[in-house]
Amino acid sequence: MKALIEKLTNVFSPSGFEDAIREVIRKEIKGFADEIHVDALGNLIARKGASAGVRDGKRVMVAAHMDEIGLMVTHVDENGFARFSNVGAVFGRYAPSGRVRFANGAAGVINNELLSNFRETPPLDKMFIDVGATSQKDCPVKLGDVAAFERPFLDLGKRVVAKSLDDRSGVAVLIETLRRLGSGPNEVYFVFTAQEEVGARGAGPAAYGIDPDVAIAVDVTSTGDTPMGRKMEVALGRGPAIKVKDAGMLADPRVVSWMVKTAEKNKIPYQREVLIMGSTDARAIQVTRAGVAAGGVSIPARYVHSPSEMVDMDDVENSVRLLVALLKSRVSL
Ligand code: ZN
Ligand code: CO
């Protein structure tokens, strides 16, 4: 799983430009799904199992987003410095001195204008990307080019650090779950969604097309386990977090209790998640069509949306175990 996470986090695919990551995932799931297709928004959809209705099964959708936060060039000045806008929630405090990689291979480093108060976090519009150009003419990037943060994968043993663990760790969980699932009573759709970081734009249309009975989003959630950190119960290493609420949704209580019961029955450690800021694909899925029973299995992560996010490999493994158990079970909502 570690090697898979390293491979996935090394791919540059910001929201709306998921071609590269989609092809990597497609190779990883080849031979494990009954049918694979890509929809108009670029969501990669893999079906496993028979049609719902057969043997009392349900149609279950599991989603993890494959996009990552990034930057887009808005202007290149006469000296070859690129100004940029955010693609998704890029925090000013994490950006300066960060390195970025463009889809065309060009790279650069972010820095900022000198501010009168040097302690202040500069806003993104006071920052620029220096790609090593000397003029607008020899600048290898132009208006509309998109970049993602570059930071090497770091193996700390039980814990790993990388860019885009949000949500490539969730993508790895879905891939591994699909590989281990085998046959079961449900028709399961594994959806690797596009454009989550710009407002869960891929998941809703995917869910509309699939029309699931129940849906689970697998994404990261913040933790409260760092020095003087936020007041939050979730901690690294205590198991997957079963979403009860976040800033965008109330998880369906029937889905929450299905998850809790399944975790307890299978002796899988779990925690409960109430997240004050942020949401996931589950929000968009829940309110599509006439409504969908939706919930979330969240991988605890520190430093979310920084180029050095951290997850615990035990939580990743236990998320796979929980999902396999859920998808093999008879769903009675
Ligand atoms: Zn995410
Ligand atoms: Co995110």
What's the gist of this structure?
The chain is of the alpha+beta class.
Could you characterize the architecture of this molecule?
The protein is an alpha+beta fold. The chain has 2 domains: 2-68 and 163-328, Aminopeptidase (3-Layer(aba) Sandwich); 70-149, Peptidase M42, domain 2 (Elongation Factor Tu (Ef-tu), domain 3). It has 7 helices and 17 strands. It has helices at 2-9, 19-29, 165-181, 203-210, 253-265, 281-286, 313-328; strands spanning 35-38, 44-48, 59-65, 70-76, 81-87, 99-102, 107-112, 127-130, 146-150, 154-155, 159-162, 187-193, 214-221, 241-245, 271-274, 293-300, 309-312. The strands form 3 sheets. Strands 1-2-12-3-13-16-14-15 form an 8-stranded mixed β-sheet, sandwiched between helices. Strands 4-5-8-7-6-9 form a 6-stranded antiparallel beta barrel. Helix 5 (253-265) links the parallel strand 14 and strand 15. Helix 3 crosses helix 7. The longest helix is centred in the middle third of the chain and has 17 residues, at 165-181. The two termini are 32 Å apart. The model has no long low-confidence stretch (mean pLDDT 96).
Strand order within the widest beta sheet = 1-2-12-3-13-16-14-15
What bound compounds does this protein have?
A: zinc ion, cobalt (II) ion
Measured on Cα atoms, how large is the radius of gyration? Answer: 20 Å
Uncertain parts: none
Main sheet characteristics: 8 strands, mixed
What is the average per-residue confidence, as pLDDT, rounded to a whole number? 96
Estimate what percentage of residues fall within beta strands.
Answer: 25-35%
The count of helical stretches stands at: 7
CATH architecture name of the largest domain: 3-Layer(aba) Sandwich
Count of beta strands: 17
Instruction: Report the CATH topology name of the largest domain.
Output: Aminopeptidase
Order of helices and strands: HHEEEEEEEEEEEHEHEEHEHEEH
Structural class: alpha+beta
Tell me the distance between the termini: 32 Å
Q: What portion of residues is helical? A: 10-25%
User: What CATH first level of the largest domain would be assigned?
Assistant: Alpha Beta
Give the overall silhouette: globular
What's the domain count? 2
What is the CATH homologous superfamily assignment of the largest domain? Answer: Zn peptidases
